[in-house]
Amino acid sequence: MSAAPVAVPAQMSDLDAELLNIAQELLARVWQQDRHEVATALRTADGRIHTGVHVEGSCRRSSICAEGVALGTARGALAPGAPLAVTSVVSVQIKPAGQFRIIAPCGVCRELISDYCPDATVWITTVDDDRPAAFRALDLLPQKSRRRW
Questions:
Q1: How far apart are CA 23 and CA 38, in angstroms?
Q2: What pTM value is reported for the model?
Q3: Residue 20 predicted with pLDDT over 90
Q4: 65 with 108: CB under 8 angstroms?
Q5: What is the DSSP string of 39-94?
Q6: For a Cys-Cys bond, which of 38, 66, 124, 138 suits 52, CB 3.0-4.6 Å?
Q7: Contacts for 94-98: CB closer than 8 Å, 24+ residues apart
Protein backbone atom coordinates (compact mmCIF):
# COMPACT_ATOMS: atom_id res chain seq x y z
CA MET A 1 0.00 0.00 0.00
CA SER A 2 1.35 3.39 -0.91
CA ALA A 3 0.41 6.10 1.55
CA ALA A 4 1.75 9.53 2.40
CA PRO A 5 3.80 9.39 5.60
CA VAL A 6 3.04 11.34 8.75
CA ALA A 7 5.26 14.36 9.17
CA VAL A 8 7.42 13.83 12.24
CA PRO A 9 6.08 16.16 14.94
CA ALA A 10 8.60 18.81 16.03
CA GLN A 11 8.38 17.69 19.67
CA MET A 12 8.99 14.00 18.84
CA SER A 13 12.41 12.67 19.82
CA ASP A 14 14.63 10.99 17.25
CA LEU A 15 14.06 7.66 19.02
CA ASP A 16 10.28 8.03 18.80
CA ALA A 17 10.55 9.22 15.19
CA GLU A 18 12.35 5.95 14.49
CA LEU A 19 9.35 4.07 15.93
CA LEU A 20 7.00 6.12 13.74
CA ASN A 21 9.01 5.28 10.63
CA ILE A 22 9.20 1.57 11.50
CA ALA A 23 5.45 1.38 12.11
CA GLN A 24 4.70 3.13 8.81
CA GLU A 25 7.10 0.87 6.87
CA LEU A 26 5.58 -2.24 8.45
CA LEU A 27 2.01 -1.22 7.71
CA ALA A 28 2.86 -0.20 4.14
CA ARG A 29 4.25 -3.71 3.63
CA VAL A 30 1.41 -5.76 5.20
CA TRP A 31 -1.67 -3.54 4.90
CA GLN A 32 -4.80 -5.32 3.79
CA GLN A 33 -8.19 -3.63 4.07
CA ASP A 34 -10.38 -5.10 6.79
CA ARG A 35 -7.57 -7.48 7.86
CA HIS A 36 -4.37 -5.64 8.80
CA GLU A 37 -5.04 -1.92 9.17
CA VAL A 38 -2.88 -0.88 12.16
CA ALA A 39 0.80 -1.34 12.98
CA THR A 40 2.61 -0.57 16.23
CA ALA A 41 6.27 -0.10 17.06
CA LEU A 42 7.42 0.16 20.65
CA ARG A 43 10.76 0.50 22.39
CA THR A 44 11.69 -1.33 25.57
CA ALA A 45 14.00 0.10 28.23
CA ASP A 46 16.88 -1.99 26.88
CA GLY A 47 16.58 -0.10 23.57
CA ARG A 48 15.09 -2.92 21.52
CA ILE A 49 12.21 -2.25 19.15
CA HIS A 50 9.26 -4.62 18.85
CA THR A 51 6.41 -4.43 16.36
CA GLY A 52 2.90 -5.72 15.99
CA VAL A 53 0.22 -5.77 13.33
CA HIS A 54 -3.54 -5.71 13.84
CA VAL A 55 -5.06 -9.08 12.96
CA GLU A 56 -8.78 -8.88 12.19
CA GLY A 57 -10.89 -11.99 12.65
CA SER A 58 -14.15 -12.83 10.93
CA CYS A 59 -15.77 -12.59 14.36
CA ARG A 60 -14.69 -9.14 15.57
CA ARG A 61 -14.20 -10.48 19.06
CA SER A 62 -11.38 -12.68 17.78
CA SER A 63 -9.44 -9.68 16.46
CA ILE A 64 -6.11 -8.76 18.02
CA CYS A 65 -4.82 -5.19 18.21
CA ALA A 66 -1.34 -4.28 17.02
CA GLU A 67 -0.41 -2.90 20.45
CA GLY A 68 -1.17 -6.21 22.16
CA VAL A 69 0.82 -8.13 19.55
CA ALA A 70 3.80 -5.79 20.05
CA LEU A 71 3.61 -6.05 23.85
CA GLY A 72 3.46 -9.84 23.67
CA THR A 73 6.43 -9.91 21.30
CA ALA A 74 8.40 -7.64 23.63
CA ARG A 75 7.57 -9.82 26.64
CA GLY A 76 8.56 -12.96 24.75
CA ALA A 77 11.97 -11.48 23.99
CA LEU A 78 12.81 -10.91 27.65
CA ALA A 79 14.78 -13.19 29.92
CA PRO A 80 12.73 -15.22 32.43
CA GLY A 81 11.56 -13.02 35.28
CA ALA A 82 12.64 -9.77 33.61
CA PRO A 83 10.01 -7.03 33.85
CA LEU A 84 8.40 -5.64 30.71
CA ALA A 85 9.56 -2.01 30.61
CA VAL A 86 8.28 -0.09 27.59
CA THR A 87 9.43 3.49 27.11
CA SER A 88 7.48 4.56 23.96
CA VAL A 89 4.62 3.34 21.78
CA VAL A 90 3.60 4.58 18.32
CA SER A 91 0.66 3.12 16.35
CA VAL A 92 -0.34 4.07 12.82
CA GLN A 93 -3.26 3.51 10.51
CA ILE A 94 -3.78 4.35 6.86
CA LYS A 95 -6.79 6.58 6.44
CA PRO A 96 -9.08 6.26 3.40
CA ALA A 97 -7.42 9.29 1.78
CA GLY A 98 -4.14 7.35 1.52
CA GLN A 99 -2.48 9.15 4.43
CA PHE A 100 -0.76 7.56 7.42
CA ARG A 101 -2.05 8.77 10.77
CA ILE A 102 -0.78 8.28 14.31
CA ILE A 103 -3.68 6.78 16.23
CA ALA A 104 -4.55 6.34 19.88
CA PRO A 105 -4.75 2.84 21.30
CA CYS A 106 -8.29 1.56 21.87
CA GLY A 107 -9.57 1.41 25.44
CA VAL A 108 -8.51 -2.21 25.91
CA CYS A 109 -4.98 -1.46 24.69
CA ARG A 110 -4.79 1.62 26.90
CA GLU A 111 -5.57 -0.66 29.83
CA LEU A 112 -3.00 -3.21 28.70
CA ILE A 113 -0.21 -0.70 28.12
CA SER A 114 -0.88 1.10 31.42
CA ASP A 115 -1.05 -2.23 33.31
CA TYR A 116 2.44 -3.19 32.19
CA CYS A 117 4.07 0.17 31.50
CA PRO A 118 2.17 3.02 33.19
CA ASP A 119 4.95 5.53 32.53
CA ALA A 120 5.45 4.70 28.84
CA THR A 121 5.09 7.54 26.36
CA VAL A 122 2.17 6.87 24.02
CA TRP A 123 1.76 8.99 20.91
CA ILE A 124 -1.79 9.80 19.81
CA THR A 125 -3.46 12.26 17.45
CA THR A 126 -5.52 14.54 19.65
CA VAL A 127 -9.24 14.92 19.13
CA ASP A 128 -9.41 18.66 19.74
CA ASP A 129 -6.70 19.91 17.40
CA ASP A 130 -5.95 16.82 15.29
CA ARG A 131 -2.21 16.93 16.06
CA PRO A 132 0.14 14.19 17.26
CA ALA A 133 1.05 14.54 20.92
CA ALA A 134 2.74 12.42 23.57
CA PHE A 135 0.99 11.26 26.74
CA ARG A 136 1.98 9.10 29.67
CA ALA A 137 0.14 5.77 29.31
CA LEU A 138 -1.54 6.07 32.69
CA ASP A 139 -2.78 9.57 31.85
CA LEU A 140 -4.85 8.14 28.99
CA LEU A 141 -7.05 6.46 31.62
CA PRO A 142 -8.04 8.95 34.31
CA GLN A 143 -9.00 7.29 37.60
CA LYS A 144 -7.81 3.87 36.41
CA SER A 145 -8.06 1.02 38.86
CA ARG A 146 -4.58 -0.22 39.72
CA ARG A 147 -4.33 -3.97 40.12
CA ARG A 148 -1.37 -5.27 42.09
CA TRP A 149 0.28 -8.11 40.19
A1: 9
A2: 0.92
A3: yes
A4: yes
A5: EEEEEETTS-EEEEE-B--SSGGG-B-HHHHHHHHHHHTSPTT----EEEEEEEEE
A6: 66
A7: 94/1, 94/3, 94/27, 94/28, 94/31, 94/37, 98/2, 98/3, 98/4
